Amino acid sequence: MRCHLMITTESCTVFFFLARMGTRKKVHTFVRVKPTDDFAHEMIKYGDDNKSIDIHLKKDTRRGVVNNQQTDWSFKLDGVLHNASQDLVYETVAKDVVAQALDGYNGTIMCYGQTGAGKTYTMTGTTENYKHRGILPRALQQGETNRIIASHTMNKNSSRSHCIFTIYVEAHSRTLSDEKYITSKINLVDLAGSERLGKSGSEGRVLKEATYINKSLSFLEQAIIALGDQKREHIPFRQCKLTHALKDSLGGNCNMVLLTNIYGEAAQLEETLSSLRFASRMKLVTTEPAINEKYDAERMVKNLEKELALLKQELAIHDSLANRTLVNYDPMDEIQIAEINSQVRRYLEGTLDEIDIINLRQIQEVFNQFRVVLSQQEQEVESALRRKYTLIDKNDFAAISAVQKAGLVDVDGHLVGEPDGQGFGLGVTPFSAKPGKKSKSKKTFKEQLSSSARKEGASSPVSGKELDVSTSKTQLTPSSKEGDVKDMTIRERETSSIEPLPSDSPKEELRPPRPSTPPPKPVAFEDFKNERGSEINRIFKENKSILNERRKRASETTQRINAIKREMDVTKEALNFQKSLREKQGEYENKGLMIIDEEEFLLILKLKDLKKQYRTEYQDLRDLRAEIQYCQHLVDQCRHRLLTEFDIWYNESFFIPEDLQVALKPGGSIRPGMVPVSRIMSLGEDAQDKFSQLQQVLLPEGPDSVAFYNAKVKTEQKHNYLKTMMGLQQAHRK
Ligand code: ADP
Ligand code: MG
Predict the structure, then answer these.
(1) What local confidence, expressed as pLDDT, does residue 368 receive?
(2) Which residue ranges in the chain fall short of pLDDT 70?
(3) Nearest Cα residue to 615 out of 451, 468, 469, 466
(4) Phi and psi (nearest 5°) for 33?
(5) What is the DSSP letter of 1?
(6) For 174-203, b where at least 16 C-beta lie within 10 A, e where not — what string?
(7) Ligand nearest to C-alpha 163
(8) pTM score, two decimals?
(9) Rounded Cα gap, residues 518 and 652, in angstroms
């Protein structure tokens, strides 16, 4: 513990402590009466509990017998010290404050009173007599029993100046291991005399000084009054150096004591009264004592290092007890991270059954590498798509219509020629590509409408814009380079070859022995649709038939709309003819109303009716198109799933080495956790190589298979990731 004593006159270093916790505490007020042979017994009386003091003033006879002058006062305090020894005063007034300062609470003890009443005697005491030493040396002494190292300088203080002694305390725990330490300070304040000027008879320079000092005392009073008023927000601390210096001691986080020194003689009664009034005002002030805690960063680091070393030893013991040898807990280097990356890849590809948990750092790195691998594969898929497809901005209508004109997509953004029936190509692509065929034979809905609108040039209740069915995704269309076109034809041939095969081939044999060469994909696909994929195939077909039914209805509605439109045009023409006839023959008018003949009237009615029909049908068409869009989405989804599952099934059935499959099956020879990870991994490495090669060679040719393969891998990744997460959560709960 260190302790510095600083004695200043008026000017004082100020520390602001922001800690404002704890409960509010009142300022403790005491009165010390200076011993005298001439004690005014009739005027000054003490309460039995030694906590109150009553003052009785004889009536001033000069003011007349009958006057309203107050003659009696009663002051309640925390203690009255009469004929008290320096020992008792210290015990009563200062001991607790100092003790609390050693626990981190700031403290302030202030002596107030007129000159000669004993402030300095109380605070400092006499230097020649040890028994008469005051609060300050005793406070230092109390600290020293707590091993304070004290330095001590003192200057002579005048009764005309304020004197603030500040003891700074910094306390560390005895064991010196606790990085938390406390700082506090004790302000011992010997105020200047509080007497009013009229009485002291000061003159000249001394008078000026006294005025100045009294001014600061009255500022102190103002600050104290403001502090006692709960409604006051602004406290005038800045008015003088004294209040400024005591700012955090008056309204701050201090334990605060006011000791009022008074004379016991009748002649000083007025000053005594004034001092006691000050004391009672001070009683209203509350403070919030709070501990000032600080942290020693250096010590904290040392402690943490110590604890870390200890925990590492602890871990080593645990590992050896659990027969885990040489587990490293240090941060991983690049090689170790690369190893984890490879583990994660093998895990995702399915060649590694599980990743052993070694420690927390490794688990975190595994997850990190999952993220790395995932984002790499995302990029790969995207760039593969970009290599194969030309992306068109869905808002670029010019580009879309150009593509439409070229016959590559219809208004829906579907590739023209997309089969309505059962057949589809193998390989997951956004749109199966079969150009030409249908666009020649069948005009699209939009083309029909717009061409009819162009022909007739009549105003239609709907603008061409509204007919645009906006596509909600970026359209992908195969680039129409020659190579690609060839590609498509090849694929078309392939596709036709997977159309239902003669069903006389034996198929209901569950798990036939694996053939030496895998069956052609189209054949296998038919098997798959009848076996594992039968349910999803059924849903797919169901959705497809709904979609076709809606399309049929849409096309019927379109035909009706066109018929209505034609009829409307015919009617309009007839109306125009009637009108011109009427104009030629001269118009009949009756009171501003146009007279028309019945034929024209009927035509108008008919046109009105046709317009109504047109609107209804058109609304139906819009609804149907929305339904179609939704069904199309479902069909696409089903198709994707069917193909993905087929691929998984195909690879499982014909490509993963049988011995490995058997071993990995439930009940097989390899069980999670039974074989060291490194062995499974080396086992998996060769198998993985073979698998990849087979993928390259045997999957249907064409760039489709890459996208297909990647899509499949991604689906599996998600599945595996979830599985791992769940496994880890379970492990964590254990
Ligand atoms: P102040 O600082 O308030 O002006 P001092 O402390 O200087 O007054 O006291 C004036 C004189 O009275 C000093 O000589 C001091 O020793 C003496 N004195 C004050 N209080 C006591 C007391 N309680 N017992 C004995 N002497 C006292
Ligand atoms: Mg003094």
Answers:
(1) 94
(2) 1-23, 59-69, 144-160, 174-178, 196-213, 228, 230, 251-252, 407-516, 586-594, 656-714, 716-718, 720-721, 723-734
(3) 466
(4) -100, 130
(5) -
(6) eeeeebebbbbbbbbbbbbbbbeeeebebe
(7) 2
(8) 0.45
(9) 11
Token pair belonging to 132? 């008469």
Q: How far is CA 439 from each of CA 338, 417, 503, 535, rounded to the nearest angstrom?
A: 53, 7, 33, 33
DSSP states of 341-363: HHHHHHHHHTSS--PPP--HHHH
- Dig out the tokens for 342 from the structure: 């490879």
Please give the pLDDT value at position 15.
32
Provide the pLDDT for residue 331: 86
| DSSP assignment letter at 519 | P
- Cα(159) to centroid(ligand 1), Å: 11
**In this structure, which residues have their CB less than 5 angstroms from ion ligand 2?**
119-120, 159
| Atom number in ligand 1 closest to CA 121 | 6
**423 Cβ closer than 6 Å to some ligand 1 atom:** no
Please work out whether the CB of residue 115 comes within 6 Å of at least one atom of ligand 1.
Answer: yes
For the CA of 115, the closest atom of ligand 1 is 4
CA of 686 to the centre of ligand 1 (A): 101
The answer to whether the CB of 79 is under 6 A from ligand 1 is no
- Distance, in Å, from the CA atom of 580 to the CA atom of 598, rounded to the nearest integer, reads 15
Q: Is the CB of residue 449 less than 8 Å from the CB of residue 362?
A: no
* Closest-approaching ligand to the CA atom of 259: 1
Ligand having the closest approach to the CA of 260:
1
Span 598-632, pLDDT tens digits: 888 899 999 999 999 999 999 999 989 988 988 88
Q: Is the CB of 120 under 6 A from ligand 1?
A: yes
**Ligand 1 close to Cβ of residue 118 (< 6 A):** yes
